[in-house]
Amino acid sequence: MNLFVIGLAFLAMLGMMLVGMPIAVSMALVGIVGGIAAYGAPFMDSIAPVVWGVQNENLLTSVPLFVLLGELLLRSGIADRMYIALSAWLGRLPGGLLHTNIGSCALFAATSGSSVATAATVGTVALPSLHRRGYSMRASLGSLAAGGTLGILIPPSVNMIVYGSLTNNSIGKLFIAGIIPGLLLTGFFMLWIAGSSLASGNAMREPKVPLKARIRALVHLVPPAVVFGIVMGSLYFGIATAAESAALGVIAALGFVLHSGKLSWELMRNCFVSTARVSGMILLIVVAAFVLNLTVSLTGVAEAMTKWVSGLGLSATGLILALMLFYLVLGMFMDVLSMQVATIPITYPIATALGVDPIWFGIFIVLMCELGLITPPVGMNLFVVHGIRPDRGGIEDAIYGALPYALIMILFTLLLLAVPQLVTWLPGHM
C-alpha cells in the first residue's frame, strides 16, 4: 500500500509538471500535501526552518555566480571569437566545422555550467556560417544539440551543484570527477563526426589556414582557458570553496571583458537581470525539492523504497542498468532540473545502500540528464537549436541528427559502469 501511495504521489507530481504547472509549485504541493496527510497541520511548522536553512546555504551562492560567469563571456563576444579560433584549428578535420561545434561547446561549457546556454550560444554563432557553407542542417543541429549537453558534464556545472546540495556531497569532487568523462565524451563525439563523414564519401573540410594565422588565433582561447584554470585549479588545490572559486572566475571574466573594451553599464545590467532570472528559478526549485525531501524523510519513503529494491535482489550493476532505462524514459517528458530534484531523494539512498560510489552516481545522474536534453518530445536542446536555425526546416532534423549522439552517450555510460575509475580516480587524488 505504501508503494502504491508513493507511486501515486510521484505520478501526480509528473502530471502537474506536464500540464504546465511550475516545477517548484508541483514539488512543494506534493511535499506539503503529503506531509499534512501524514502529520497534520503541525507539519507546516517544520517547513520554515527548512526554507530558511536552504536560503542560508553558502554552497548555493555559487549558482548565481556561475550563471553570471557564463553571461559575461556570452554577452562580451568572447564566445564568438573562441569559435573563430577553434575553426582555424579543427576545420581541416573530416567533418570540418562540425568539429568546431563540439570543441566550442566543450570550451564554453568549461565556463558556463548550463547546457541550454552552451547550445544557444554556440548555435547562434555557428549555424549561419554552416548554412552558408552548405553543411547538412541535420548534422549541424545534431552536433550542436549534443555538444550543448557537455555544459552540465564539464565543470563547472550548475546541475552538479544541485546534486551536491541535495545529497550533501563535495561540489569540488563532483567538478573534478566530471573532467575526464567530459573530455572523453567530447572525443567520442568528434570521432563519430570524423568516421561518419569519411563513411559518407563527402567529408566537408574547411580551407587550410596558415600556421601563423592559427597561432595568432590562439589568443582568443586564452579567456575561457584562464577562467577554467582559475576555477578548477583553486578547487583542486584546496585554495577556495565552490562559491569562492566561482567568485574568482567572475573577477577574471570581468577583467577580460574590460580588456576587450565591451564593459558597459548596459552589458552589466543585461547580465545581472538574466542571472537573477535564471538563479531565482533554480533556487526556488531547490527550496521546493528540500520541502519534498522533508516529507520523504519524515514518512520513511526512501527507506521503504530501499527495502523494496533490496528485496528484489538487484546488484549495484543491475540497479544502474534499471535506472538507465528509467531515466531514458523519464527524460523524454521532463527537463533536467525536474528529473534531478524529483528523483535523487529516492534513487540516491537506494544506490548508496547497494554500494554505489556517491561521486560516481552524481556523474551518472548528470549523464542521464544530458541524455534527456536530446531525447524527444521534451529534449530542451533540440528546441533550442531548432529555434535558431537560419532556414525553416522541421524539428525532425534536430531529432534525427542527435540520435547517434544519444546512442554514444548510452554506450559511454556503460563504459563508465565497466571502468568506474574514469570517474573516481581524479577526485580520489584531491
Automatic annotation (TrEMBL):
<feature type="transmembrane region" description="Helical">
    <location>
        <begin position="282"/>
        <end position="302"/>
    </location>
</feature>
<dbReference type="GO" id="GO:0005886">
    <property type="term" value="C:plasma membrane"/>
</dbReference>
<comment type="function">
    <text>Part of the tripartite ATP-independent periplasmic (TRAP) transport system.</text>
</comment>
<keyword id="KW-0812">Transmembrane</keyword>
<comment type="similarity">
    <text>Belongs to the TRAP transporter large permease family.</text>
</comment>
<feature type="transmembrane region" description="Helical">
    <location>
        <begin position="6"/>
        <end position="39"/>
    </location>
</feature>
<keyword id="KW-0472">Membrane</keyword>
<feature type="transmembrane region" description="Helical">
    <location>
        <begin position="360"/>
        <end position="386"/>
    </location>
</feature>
<keyword id="KW-0997">Cell inner membrane</keyword>
<dbReference type="Pfam" id="PF06808">
    <property type="entry name" value="DctM"/>
</dbReference>
<feature type="transmembrane region" description="Helical">
    <location>
        <begin position="139"/>
        <end position="162"/>
    </location>
</feature>
<feature type="transmembrane region" description="Helical">
    <location>
        <begin position="398"/>
        <end position="423"/>
    </location>
</feature>
<feature type="transmembrane region" description="Helical">
    <location>
        <begin position="215"/>
        <end position="239"/>
    </location>
</feature>
<protein>
    <recommendedName>
        <fullName>TRAP transporter large permease protein</fullName>
    </recommendedName>
</protein>
<dbReference type="GO" id="GO:0022857">
    <property type="term" value="F:transmembrane transporter activity"/>
</dbReference>
<keyword id="KW-1133">Transmembrane helix</keyword>
<comment type="subunit">
    <text>The complex comprises the extracytoplasmic solute receptor protein and the two transmembrane proteins.</text>
</comment>
<feature type="transmembrane region" description="Helical">
    <location>
        <begin position="308"/>
        <end position="329"/>
    </location>
</feature>
<feature type="transmembrane region" description="Helical">
    <location>
        <begin position="174"/>
        <end position="194"/>
    </location>
</feature>
<feature type="transmembrane region" description="Helical">
    <location>
        <begin position="98"/>
        <end position="127"/>
    </location>
</feature>
<keyword id="KW-1003">Cell membrane</keyword>
<dbReference type="InterPro" id="IPR004681">
    <property type="entry name" value="TRAP_DctM"/>
</dbReference>
<feature type="transmembrane region" description="Helical">
    <location>
        <begin position="59"/>
        <end position="78"/>
    </location>
</feature>
<feature type="domain" description="TRAP C4-dicarboxylate transport system permease DctM subunit">
    <location>
        <begin position="11"/>
        <end position="422"/>
    </location>
</feature>
<dbReference type="InterPro" id="IPR010656">
    <property type="entry name" value="DctM"/>
</dbReference>
<keyword id="KW-0813">Transport</keyword>
